[in-house]
Amino acid sequence: MLLPCRLLSSVAPQRLWVGLGSRVTGSVNSLTSFRAINTSPKDASTPAVQHAEEENTSTEAAKLKKPKRAPFIKNLFLGRFDKSVLEFPEVLDQDQHELLHEMVVPIERYFLEQVDGPKIDRDAKIPEETLQGLKELGLFGQQIPQEYGGLGLGATEYARIAEITSLDGSIAVTLAAHQAIGLKGILICGTDAQKEKYLPQLACGDWTAAFCLTEPSSGSDAASIQTRATLSDDGKTWLINGSKIWISNGGFADLMTVFAKTTKILPSGEKKDKVTAFIVERSFGGVSSGPPEDKLGIRGSNTCEVFFDNTPVPAENVLGEVGGGFKVAMNILNSGRFSMGSSGAGMLKRLLSWSIDHAVNRKQFGNYLSEFAMIKEKFGRMSANIYAMESMAYLTAGILDGQEDPDCSVEAAIVKVFSSEGAWKWCSECLQVLGGLGYMKSYPFERYLRDARILLIFEGTNEILRLFIGLSGLQTAGGELREVVQKLRNPLMNPGFIIGKGIERFRQQKDNPKLDLDIAGHLHPTLQPSAQLLEYCVKRFQYSVEMVLAKHGQAVAAPKNQLDVARLADCAIDLYAMTAVLSRASRAYCIGLKNAAHEIQLASVFSAEAAERIKTRVRDLEIGPVQNHDDLYSRIADAVVENKGYVAEHPLTRTFW
Amino acid sequence: MSLRVLVGVKRVIDYAVKIRVRPDKLGVVTDGVKHSMNPFDEIAIEEAVRLKEKKIAKEVVAISCGPTQAQETIRTALAMGADRGIHVEIPAKEVEKLEPLHVAKIMAKLVEQEKADLVVLGKQAIDDDSNATAQMTAALLDWPQATFASKIEKTDGELQVTREVDGGLEIIKVKLPAVVSADLRLNEPRYATLPNIMKAKKKKIAKMKAADLGVDTSPHFEVLDVADPPVREAGIKVEDVDTLVTKLKDAGRI
Predict the structure, then answer these.
(1) How much is the ipTM here?
(2) Percent of chain B scored above 90 by pLDDT?
(3) Residue B201 and residue A99: Cβ atoms within 8 Å?
(4) Fold identical between A337-456 and A463-642?
(5) Burial zone of A267 (CB within 10 Å; 0-12 exposed, 13-18 middle, 19+ buried)
(6) How far is CA B87 from CA A224, B8, B200, B204, in A?
(7) Most B CBs within 10 Å, among A96, A97, A102, to test the B interface
(8) pTM of the predicted model, to two decimals?
(9) Segment B54-78 mean pLDDT
(10) Which CATH architecture has domain A40-61+91-334?
(11) Which CATH class is domain A463-642?
(12) Across the interface, do B191 and A103 touch by the CB < 8 Å criterion?
């Protein structure tokens, strides 16, 4: 039996091809070496891929050019499934792997021995000595290149360390605000001069950084910020005026990435306001911070207002291009999001262990809690969800590390949405297992729950990210499908097309799409049923994308159509999760990891339930807003909003005696 | 006077792990169990590195006798500031049977080869609690020994060591070269920082076998049985001292 597994190559997949002297279009993937040899170039299900050329067989993996692939989820909206994703990435070489393993030990010890979580929460402050210890450990410069004094870690290593720093929410957010967003702009699009000037002191923590975008009237709508930067007459200095709100590390950051509106005069003479990103040192003057906000959770993380009063910023401190700030902001946010998956999973794994410890020791009604089905269900479901979170996080990290210039914006958003909601929900369930004890401050559960709540809000609210996921995909699809959609919306003018598409649509309408992607061929045979489910879901998703485009056209982005976009986004989330868990479980089984059979179970049950959810959403899209109740809820909401409150009469109201 | 310091580091089961007796009752479960450096050895390394920072020592060599994974322990020592490592590889099945006398012989041989001036060891390993290796090493080398050190000061060609003994603190002077064993309050070991862990990758670890040093590691004794300590029983309250004394006499305790 052909086992499509990685046993064949413990080396970079590309090497297998060199020996064969052949080049095959489609995924560069040793997993498919048996089947793909016969893959016809017309295999439309895999996007065209530029090959990594290898200079000679003995070249180190590091010198291999990374493959460039089209974005996975965006293409899924077109029904294109890049099967290379089914090969779970292995990006670290043995040295990096050992190094990571070694680094994890002292970080964990430091957190367990030197970090007093309850005290940080009570005092709403991280002690200076604790922060100093974190700086000495090197945690402030994880992704800064070694030449600037940082650790030069990639996304995968950063994600792994995030599993440990999540031991304390306040510290995790302080570290993330500093390096995942605060200084990330310099890493992504800083000039060499800017990097040399600022990165060394940021790497060792002598300077800390903050990301200043949000304003009182501009949260989700980031492009509407009003902080202004005006250029001096001699063109050498920008003056920044404005105020920012809810800035993590805002009270003490020495360096801030500040976003402000700048006026551009177009060739036509018209004035246009665009966002520009600036590197602002507190020492430039005119920078002041408000008092720290008193928060529900992550209370040790400093959050405050930051005011800029004629702050002079030299022109060489513009980050990226003048007017290109919005893109800079989005790139920065996109690049840090995926680590929420691993930090959430790390936290949940710990809470799970503690809950289990309670459940196997506490007896009620003569049985241990762990013997009751309702408790067991929590542990089972939670495990499957942690598995999905981890798998997606490391799959995304693997793509970021392993591909050339990857576009993971949608995938990262998916990881963030899934992980934040999972962290909140399962933290709550763990607390529930402990009952009254879980509610007490003497146990850590309530603190983790409060710390987790912010995850659904910052770094892009989950509502915005669902729109982002849905609309990015629709935009990709819409671009390519424009003609298709045009014809779908004008059936009478395009009878030939409609008839041609008719069979496909007929099958879709009967909920029986043709499964021709051969996803099962890229996974271990044990996962065949799940692979079939995934393929079915991919097809149904493609159909629902076409449906939504046909139904709404350009108006798909209108406020009233958000629920349909959200349905597509939720499908995309479940699809990415299914892909990640199946890819990972297949690899685990193929390479013979301990407890691989358990992983197969996790992947199978998660996929089965994800498929059901996708089915329901597609059906909801099919039956339309009246039958899926969107309309009714909208009208209820209108009434309630107009009434400025609940509308129904009190149950005790009488009209007669 | 710049000393070359040899420090022994042992890979043991992590102190926080719940130990389980193996089914064959001849040892404890080590498979898949978290291991780390013996805490007293961390203190030993820390002291040696501090001596180097005070310019009393010129080189710190970390030595471990153990399986392949002992290299991780040596790497931790390197990350804490040791300059190089020596791994005396002991096959996995023989690790359990390695005795303090074997390690002492190995250390003595390495002292000769490396021309060391000072040996610092942890006072005992937390797995076998032998508290013997430092003493045996000193005897084999015919060197002075200062065990259970809680403070070490250098004075012209000699070490003044404060020892923690049952009666309190004892301060002795030992001539160099000497063997010292580190006790709990000697210092608080530093955390291996991530940049140092990366730098440690470039430091060398020499590999050898016990036989290369002419040391025979055949066991001198045989473990007959390993068992859990008896489960703690409930206590009882008594009314007065007389009853207490009677009960203790009956139980044969006094």
Answers:
(1) 0.84
(2) 89
(3) yes
(4) yes
(5) exposed
(6) 62, 10, 15, 10
(7) A102
(8) 0.86
(9) 96
(10) Beta Barrel (2.40)
(11) mainly alpha
(12) no
